[in-house]
Write a structure and sequence with these properties.
424 residues, alpha+beta, 11-stranded mixed sheet, two-stranded antiparallel sheet, 53% helix, elongated
Length: 424
């Protein structure tokens, strides 16, 4: 068997130029298969780690996925707000340890603006229950003196070039209309958060009092005609929040989660919904899973085309090698050994492509991982290949072996005389 593999390797080396193209093709398909699998796993991990340490998310009664999208991922808009007093009442429920209110709806140059309390920086967790950390500055303190303080996410600071002391103007809604700018009440950047790989990086954080201040002279989403409140006047006004978008809830014990969820659903003040973030994340992943399966199907097709190219190259080379194979038959090699020779050759070519593709994938994760993290907020992990990756590589190897059996079977059926007297 060793002699057969040695002979197959020498034969492949003699045709290295043509076979190197096949190796590159198989390497590309392996790179796509492993790259998409790594991206799929890390995307799912980023989804699951967008919020952790939060037991429930409470908002207006709507779909769980919709509530998760706008409360955590800042995608879409709430159908209704909830009263701030309702969030305070939830905080008094037995089993509830803390409540962090969230107010959304404004933006800054394409980035979401989140109104919250200083407790957000203490209670919010991401990943493996990692707390938020400030790369520069300090969080806002929620006092009257800090009404116009803002803490920006890492991506906001990077893409807009912001530093401490930067004056920024917020916009009502998505900021599509310049008339909706809150230019009369600018904010000052007092803190920049460290990167998290979550929507926090793409968010401008201000206090709930700041949200109230910029909307004192607004009603129904438009400025009140003939009324104007200066920034100084607004800072001295009663800025107690009237409504919020949602609230993050932490419990004293995990065992109380369903009891508190039932209490929120039965809340008499207004219709509310409490969702478990992990369950809603699984539902969300089921929704976006169609695109994932489409990418996997495309990479599988690329692999099939590469293996078809392997078959074509070996079949095309059979006519040139008929005399070579006939000489091997003449010195004692049997038909089965001819089949095994071509199968081994195809397997070696496939193995070379799989190894090259795997190394390229790991190199891409290592080199491009920081850029992808900074640009798209997706943390790519360079880890030991898991069961899924080994299965994909084994599938490509098995496909290469099966593909090489086709020309091997043809060589098996060639007679000795056919090779010694080839037709011209």
């Amino acid at each position: 068997m060793t002699a057969l593999l040695h002979l197959a390797a020498r034969s492949a080396w003699n045709r290295r130029f043509v076979l190197s193209l096949v190796v590159l093709s198989i390497a590309l398909s392996t790179f796509l298969l492993l790259g998409i699998e790594r991206l799929r796993q890390d995307l799912r991990a980023n989804f699951a780690q967008a919020v952790s340490g939060t037991d429930l998310i409470v908002g207006a009664r709507t779909g769980p996925v919709q509530l998760l999208l706008y409360a955590v991922f800042r995608i879409g808009n709430a159908t209704n707000n909830i009263r701030y007093t309702s969030a305070e009442a939830i905080g008094q429920l037995r089993g509830v340890a803390w409540v962090v209110p969230l107010s959304l709806g404004d933006s800054h140059r394409g980035f979401a603006v989140l109104g919250t309390t200083p407790a957000y920086f203490e209670r919010f967790r991401f990943g493996a229950k990692q707390p938020l950390a400030l790369a520069q500055g300090k969080p806002f303190d929620g006092t009257a003196a800090g009404v116009y303080d803002a803490v920006v996410g890492a991506e906001v600071a990077r893409r807009l070039g912001y530093g401490l002391g930067q004056r920024i103007v917020l916009s009502h809604g998505d900021g599509a209309m310049a008339a909706n700018d809150h230019a009369d009440k600018p904010f000052t950047v007092v803190g920049i958060l460290a990167p998290t790989g979550t929507p926090v990086d793409r968010t401008v954080h201000i206090s709930l009092q700041g949200i109230e201040a910029i909307h004192l002279d607004w009603a129904a989403g438009v400025p009140l005609p003939g009324q104007s409140t200066t920034a100084e006047q607004a800072a001295q006004a009663d800025l107690t929040p009237r409504s919020i978008t949602a609230a993050l809830v932490g419990l004293k014990t995990r065992s109380a989660v369903f009891a508190v969820q039932r209490d929120v659903a039965a809340f008499r003040g207004e219709p509310l919904l409490a969702i478990l973030p992990g369950v809603a994340l699984d539902e969300l992943w089921d929704v976006v899973g169609l695109g994932e399966r489409g990418l996997q199907a495309m990479s599988a097709l690329v692999a099939a085309v590469s293996l078809a190219g392997l078959v074509a190259v070996i079949l095309a080379g059979l006519n040139e090698r008929r005399r070579e194979l006939a000489i091997l038959r003449a010195v004692g090699a049997g038909p089965r050994q001819m089949l095994a020779l071509l199968a081994a050759e195809g397997l070696l070519v496939t193995a070379g492509g799989v190894l090259l593709g795997a190394l390229a994938c790991w190199a891409a994760v290592l080199l491009a991982g920081p850029w992808v993290q900074a640009r798209f907020g997706i943390g790519l992990q360079l880890v030991t290949p898991g069961a899924a990756e080994w299965q994909l590589m084994a599938a490509v190897l098995a496909g290469g072996l099966l593909a090489s059996l086709v020309p091997g079977w043809r060589a098996y059926r060639l007679s000795l005389a056919d090779g010694l007297s080839p037709r011209i």
